[in-house]
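[Automated response] Your request has been received and processed.

Submitted sequence:
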Amino acid sequence: MKTQFKLAAASVTAALLVVSQSFAAPELPVITQELLAPPLMPPQITRKTPAKVVVNLTVEEVEREIAPGTKYTFWTFGGTVPGKMIRVREGDTVELNLQNLPDNKLPHNIDLHAVTGPGGGAAQTLIAPGNEARFTFKALNPGLYVYHCATAPVGMHVANGMYGMILVEPKEGMSKVDKEYYVMQGDFYTTGAYRAPGLQAFDQQKAIDEKPTYVLFNGADGALTGANALTAKTNEKVRMFFGVGGPNITSSFHIIGAIFDKVYFEGGTKFQEQVQTTMVPAGGSAIVEFTPKVPGNLTLVDHSLTRAFNKGAIGLLSVSGPDNYSIYGKGIKKPLPGAKAAVAPAKAPVVPVVAGEQARGKAVYDNTCAVCHQDKGQGVAGVFPPLAKSDYFKERPYEMANIVLHGRTGEIVVNGEHYNGVMPAQELNDEDVAAVINYVSVAMNDGKPVVTPTQVAEMRKAR
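Generated structure:
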């Protein structure tokens, strides 16, 4: 009997082993995440089954320009602000490998809002320079999520650029679009004023008081302007993954000249349609989709507008394609009855060329002037006068510097065309005013430098 019982028990154990093996989860295919510098995105996911996604991310403390002529020491994930986008599918298992490079000076970690669990991975990844950490998590919830450093003082680490996003695509995938872009807004606190030259230090008190020196897209003044502007063609469907790293400031995200067809608010799976401006909190996100219909520059801004025009929260999407006057007309312009032509003052004296000034002037123009006067200075018919090939500018460059400093209201005649509007005074320092005026003179009017920072300072005092 005992022998028969042992044989029966062995048979049951073997049977249970076979059953358990038949129900064991199949081994997941391993995919190493492709990491690209923002504003680029990893490609859309086409697979229909889960995978193990390996993400190799470095922490890098780097010194680079936060504005033309202004440097700052950023703390980054992967060497960029924001950090590289992580793109996975709902149900994937993510293996995150974090390296704190030996040349760094501080400990760092990562907290991913997509993680279900205490700290989002912060405890598992807290490491000193010269060390690495690894942890895994399952991507349970679809959506667009922020990740950031959670090492104390957390606000300081985030304020220095330690944030990025992870996209968890739903199991059914996302609809096809023509262009995808990755943009994050962040607030930065420097000891010097906006665009003050030289290496700037972090200002803890400004951060505590929530008074940022800069509010920026993708970590630099001008990161999405000029040669770095985003691009699209008319009638292409554009999807933008937008987030706010913070640490403090909420964004009123708006694109001048576009209406969002869909906004997946708070980075989730539900959307609102026909939206003009969407509110995105610090540590939050939104996915916006839209289709440009006419060519020209569409302007990304935080619609808390002094952040855009005085702190740097501005970018451009350059749209190419044929005009469509049935959607966006040329406009009609004519002088008002009794309008008087402007009187030309004396020409400004010749000013010597200053090395590096043209690059600085272009950066100031791209960030401050291109919104209204367009990227090549062509202006907008009936609204904003041209700065390129402008008879007014060529005859009155010194006055143009005054206009930048103090603003102007009333009629102006440029190349025989009448304009009547308001230009507010620009909050630029003397070097930036001189640089942008000289850039317009040289690059857009085939002229020479026409004004110095000293002359700008004298104009400023004259009012």
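Summary generated for your ticket: Confidence is low (pLDDT under 50) at residues 15-22, 344-348. The radius of gyration is 27 Å.
If you did not submit this request, please reply to this message.
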